[in-house]
Amino acid sequence: MFKTVADPHVGRVSYFRVFSGSLKSNGSVYNEHAEKSERVGHAFISRGKEHLNADSIEAGDIGAVGKLAVTHTGDTLSDENHHLQLAKIDFAKPSYSAAVNPKTKADLDKMGQGLHRIVEEDPTLQLGRDPVTGESILSGLGEPHIQIALERMTRRYGVNVELGLPRVQYRETISAKTSSEYKHKKQTGGAGQYGHVFLELEPLDSNDFEFTERVVGGSVPRNFFPAVEKGVREALDAGPVAGYPVVNVKVTLYDGSYHDVDSNEMAFKIASKEAFKKGILMGKPILLEPMMTIEVTVPDNFTGDVMSDLNGKRAHVSGMNPADNGCTRIEAVVPGAEIQRYATDLRSITQGRGSFSSEFSHYQPVPPNLAEQIKNEAREREETAA
Fold first, then answer.
1. pLDDT tens across 112-160, in order?
2. Range of 315's domain?
3. Do 200 and 107 belong to one domain?
4. Contact status, residue 286 vs residue 174, Cβ threshold 8 Å
5. Cα gap 261→193, rounded to integer Å
6. Position 84 in a domain
7. Cα maximum dimension of the chain
8. Is 325 inside a domain boundary?
9. Dihedrals φ, ψ of 301, to 5°?
10. Which phi and psi angles does 261 have, rounded to 5°?
11. Taking Cα atoms as reference points, which of 95, 93, 49, 90 lies closest to residue 73?
């Protein structure tokens, strides 16, 4: 299968070339990549806009078939009794990502289906969802690539969308050990709510989160420990500094109190959640930014310009090695926020002759001057949402 087209009238159409034997209409074949059998409907040959039905497509010919369930571009179909795998097509990896947002409520309903159809057609596009921000993220080979794909989606399916840069996945943590306390007390007509906890928070390098307890004397009954941990875990999702997830923290429940009648799991969950928020603010909180390992391959005569641009992006260059065809390979670690539009920047610097790949490396503290700016932006977002 070398091409997939989402036809508005016919549905999904898969184009293929037969390398040996023949593909017969209304038969069954085996998908080597999915390791499943695939039912094939009526095969046809495309001639311009015409679809000419064919009983079989012979070796060397190009044909098409509609509405395949598990087969995608690049997959090999073979006889169910004689499995054969052709060499996979090596698709370029995405280097640019954009957040896609619907313009109206009507567009929201159609956007998901439209995005999935254009991704089916183009294997160099990837669609994902940011679990923290909830944004739909479309990744491709560059800004023009994404724009052209979305224009095609608008033309075919009438979906209007807006493009923007994805929100950077910052994290929050603490830089000092601290203790906090919170008492949740609520009295109503009947049984009330009472939960009282003392938490100790300390920075953690080796793990995202750890919860322990060292309660003595039964000041907090053991059956409430899971509720305390659950409250803390819920508070991890959105930190009090800028609303980003909290990581690298060890939390210890070491004291508290309870009421024989009014204490319940909900009360202790609320108390631990509030105590954790207080503790984060008391523990000298800092923002962490994602650092990316980037590998840039450029012609030798552009090396100086690319190095200068990387230095302006707060990059730490770790190595330069000669590559093939008079090129240089530059390796560096750079903040993710600085290279969101790097595909466009590199094309501009190298006249379209440079290429790069990047992957996540680690988190490190944001410089204080930038941290204040990030906090202000988060505050503005909250006010806009409210």
1. 888 988 888 888 999 998 887 788 999 998 889 999 999 988 988 888 8
2. 288-368
3. no
4. yes
5. 9
6. no
7. 83
8. yes
9. -70, -10
10. -100, -45
11. 90
